[in-house]
Amino acid sequence: MAIQWYPGHMAKARREVTEKLKIIDVVIELLDARAPLSSRNPVIDELAQGKPRLILLNKTDLADPIQTKAWAQYFRRQGAYVISINSQNGHGTEKIDAACKELANPLFEKWKSKGMKPRAIRVVILGIPNVGKSTLINRLASKRTANVGDRPGITKRQQWIKIGTSLELLDTPGILWPKFEDQITGYRLAATGAIKDELLDFQDIALFVLKYLKREYPNVIRDRYRVDELPEDDVALFDLIGEKRGFLQKGGYVDYDKTAETILRELRSGTLGAVTLEKPSDIEEKTV
Ligand SMILES: Nc1nc2c(ncn2[C@@H]2O[C@H](COP(=O)(O)OP(=O)(O)OP(=O)(O)O)[C@@H](O)[C@H]2O)c(=O)[nH]1
Ligand SMILES: [Mg+2]
């Protein structure tokens, strides 16, 4: 199944971000720690226009901690400023203020040398739908000012939020891009919840997830679904999970829809365990 989601409001949001960037000092790129590369918008370099950039790996509570470390190192090796965070409980978010100040410092020094007074740092938070932009803003503001939800496409328009006296944050609608470089990116984004569910074939996505878990995290499947021997065939495994969970229809057939939906829900909520859907070692192998 070809996965793609680039509705008109995203094209508009992209234009609006481009407009606003003239007055922005620092760009925060919020990535999903479960799929850092797939959740990275390739248009971001064009959007960020060489502004100082901070990469945040969010939802670290749902991701494999070993891989989160590896991804942070991967981006740091490329010269990026990286912080791993959990916007829901605030873990790591206390470092953001100082990072923005450090990144904006050269600009402030320039102002000072021209005799201008420093003002609040203007920061924009960019990221794909559902990655947690509004949750992060609420966390930094210590109040619920931005709308959040567990569906992609919650924020519809830009909104400035003041954080103390030193920061002004711009919340933006999640933006995807017109064409995924490869379909596996689409599958990862679908699995983590960045694409509108109504557009997805859940069985297809759940099979993709199972195949990956079987290879990389077999114990996650064994523990959660009490399957001791993982069948070689992915569809047979899918069947077995449905059976074990008692998702049977009339005649004893496995209810595929319910099984697929359960696997995805349990992956997204972290019930399955902390799982990362792509590893830096995968790409490094590819480029060597
Ligand atoms: N487990 C976990 N959930 C998070 C975290 N950050 C955000 N969420 C959840 O992710 C969902 C999406 O959060 P939002 O803040 O609305 O995401 P957004 O990026 O603003 O999404 P759009 O406005 O649709 O682009 C919500 O259900 C949040 O509670 C996190 O660090 N960990
Ligand atoms: Mg939002």
Automatic annotation (TrEMBL):
One Pfam family in the UniProt entry: MMR_HSR1
InterPro entries: G_CP_dom, GTP-bd, GTP-bd_ortho_bundle_sf, GTP-bd_ribosome_bgen, GTPase_MTG1, P-loop_NTPase
Claim: tRNA-binding is one of the keywords in the record: no
Positions of the CP-type G domain: 14-178
Record keywords: Cytoplasm, GTP-binding, Nucleotide-binding, Ribosome biogenesis
Chief place where the protein resides: cytoplasm
Entry keyword Cytoplasm: yes
Gene3D superfamilies xref list: 1.10.1580.10, P-loop containing nucleotide triphosphate hydrolases
Protein location: Cytoplasm
Subunit structure: Interacts with ctc. Interacts with the immature 50S ribosome subunit. 2 molecules of rbgA bind to one 50S subunit.
NCBIfam families (alphabetical): GTPase_YlqF
Family classification: Belongs to the TRAFAC class YlqF/YawG GTPase family. MTG1 subfamily.
Its biological purpose: Required for a late step of 50S ribosomal subunit assembly. Has GTPase activity. Essential protein that is required for a late step of 50S ribosomal subunit assembly. Has GTPase activity that is stimulated by interaction with the immature 50S ribosome subunit. Binds to the 23S rRNA. Required for the association of ribosomal proteins rplP and rpmA with the large subunit.
Protein name per UniProt: Ribosome biogenesis GTPase A
Species name: Alkalicoccobacillus murimartini
Organism lineage string: Bacteria, Bacillati, Bacillota, Bacilli, Bacillales
